[in-house]
Amino acid sequence: MLVLTRRLGEAITIGDNIRIVIVDISGHQVKLGIEAPKDIEIYREELYTRIKGVPFGTISKEKKENEDKK
Length: 70
Prior knowledge:
Blueprint: E1 11-14, E2 18-26, E3 29-35, H1 45-52, H2 58-69
């Protein structure tokens, strides 16, 4: 896991087409703005687990293991 420090208004880019901006900081809460292509699914972690039925990272881990077997 990469851990970064950002201030209000600063951003992080992921690849060439995803940008995460610190929109607001209030107490212990940070609001993020996410700019990404429409085909990228973006979920809060608790919703991801509910929707996908597995913890985050499980699907990509299983996919990698299957690719390694080929």
